[in-house]
Amino acid sequence: MNKKLLLLILFVVSFDLFGSAFFTAKPKKVSQQKDFFAGGILQFESQTQIVAQFNGYISGVFVRAGDRVRKNQTLLKIKREEPGFINQDFPIKAPFNGIVRSVNAYQGSRVSAQTSLMVVADENSLRFYADLFLQDLQYIKSGMSVQLIFPNIVHELKGKVEKILEGNPAKKTAQVIVKIDQPQNLLIPFSEGKMRFSVQSGSVWLVPAEALLRDRSGYFVWIKENGIARKRSVKIGELQGTDFQILEGIEGSEEIIVFGTDDLKENQRVDEF
Q1: Lowest-confidence pick of 12-21, 50-59, 87-96, 201-210
Q2: Where are the domains of the chain?
Q3: Fold matches, 3-26+212-259 and 35-201
Q4: What is the rounded CA–CA span in Å between residue 54 and residue 80?
Q5: Is pLDDT of 190 > 50?
Q6: Top-level class of domain 35-201
Q7: CATH topology of domain 3-26+212-259
Q8: How much of the chain is in helix, strand and coil states, percent to nearest 5?
Q9: E strand or H helix that includes residue 10
Q10: How does the average pLDDT of the chain come out, rounded?
């Protein structure tokens, strides 16, 4: 059973039996993280031009631009038109796992040695190029883990900062190159996305949301101090789950009264259930 729900049940029971009851809790100290974001695009660092090695004509083309190919997969075939090779088909195979960027060969077309047939990009060279604001550059370094967010992928992908290029004062950004830990088939080259990374930015106290009250002066909590209720003004931050951040007003050693504060008065004796 949820701990807070159990406390609430005990509070109701004790109130029915004894007319009043108080429950206290210590503030929780948690580390704070600040998130940074940078927009960017997927690009290939390496691509290879596939060229004909001899004279002949294209007898078959088996891929199109945008297709993913595996190493040694047959991309096309050429009939070699040279003495001793008449009517022999020679397969041209993918040099690595990758994506076909462009196709310049068509079935039946004649080619000569060094004719460009197609361009294949190495999928292992797929990188995310993020444009990070110069003011945030101090928080990132090579080898740092980051998250990548794409519109067509539900979950975030993991990556590591591979390079940080020199900043561009005119754009007020620096380019950060990220290697993706496990590239997926859903990744589409030249897709736009976001890089996210987090850095620790100190710590903050949390108190249960039920303990937080408000009057004309602002937010406050009740503190149990030597068995006496004391009102303490606080400055709150964000809601984290079922707790609120307390930015000012407590030191962390206090006993915060969570339940039983409805009719509580300053200096009232409080007996915890």
Answers
A1: 12-21
A2: 3-26+212-259, 35-201
A3: no
A4: 7
A5: yes
A6: mainly beta
A7: 2.40.420
A8: 10, 55, 35
A9: helix 3-18
A10: 86
